[in-house]
Amino acid sequence: MRKKALELIRVSTEGQAGEVRAGIPPQRQVNRRTAQIYDLDIVRSIEIIDVSGAWVLMSPEMQELMRLMESPEIAGVITKEFSRLMRPENFSDYCLLQHSVDTGTLLYLPDGPLDLASKSGRLMGTIRAAFAGVERRDIIERMQDGKETLRRSGKHPGGATTLPYGVGYSKEAQLPASPANRKRNTPGPTENAGLNRNLDNSTDCIADSGAR
Prior knowledge:
The chain has a five-stranded mixed β-sheet with strand order 2-1-3-4-5, with helices on both faces. The chain is α/β, with parallel strands linked by helices and 212 residues long. The chain folds into two domains: 3-141, Resolvase, N-terminal catalytic domain (Rossmann fold); 179-211. 47% of the residues lie in helices and 15% in strands.
């Protein structure tokens, strides 16, 4: 009799969802192969999109997964790699591993099932979780280094939401925020004259309204 299992798919950003190597379709393909190897029926697929591994425990999807794990019919959780499950930022995140022990569910990975209740599984689960957390910090450091390189070269390192209201930046044009470019984007004398006339008209209108 085939055992029932849950499938977990997670991507940290919406942009990663369609990626060839780490997107949703590749993860699903690997999980289906794992289910076939270990004679498992996937009864529910949980997709977590745009959630970092450090915050995955707080997501509604993960809470739903943990609730489903409590069913005695569920034998385990299938996922592409351990980091899809979690990238712990602090030791309280390890409660997810304990939940697996309490519910008697195994973690099915492409390289084999991981029984966190066993002595070897407890060791390997703790080590893999620690490595996943360290990898997250390495990723953050590389991203910050890249942003600092862009900033030092006069380019905008962030998204549009980090810019002041009314200010835009084209990453395609790669226009550095240098004095030369600011001067080039500054309105000329003709534009300033038109702007001054509009301001004068607005001032006159306000003055007339006050007089009335």
